[in-house]
Amino acid sequence: MKILFLKFTGIICLILCLNACGDSIDCDDTTTLNAEAEMHIDAIFDAQDAFNNDQSDDNCKTLKSVLEDYLDFLGEYEECVDAEDLDEYNATIAEGEAFLSSLNC
Fold it and tell me: Structure pTM?
């Protein structure tokens, strides 16, 4: 399912978020980055499972909310992405936003 892209692209994005970071974000703190990413990814999978089992409006809204949180998380670390990886990073964000907008709730 489309949600699988989030797991793989999230990991890719976190790997990319290790260089060229400004003062406000610590891109070198990979332990925190990975823990936070894992938290978001787990929340997405839990929400996706709930939505697959019961496509209620509440479950849809929960899935939408955790996806928004994840995209916000990725957006916070954009300044850490190396220039040569920025196109892939932006494509990942665009794909996530497209999936998010496909949810009808």
Answer: 0.72
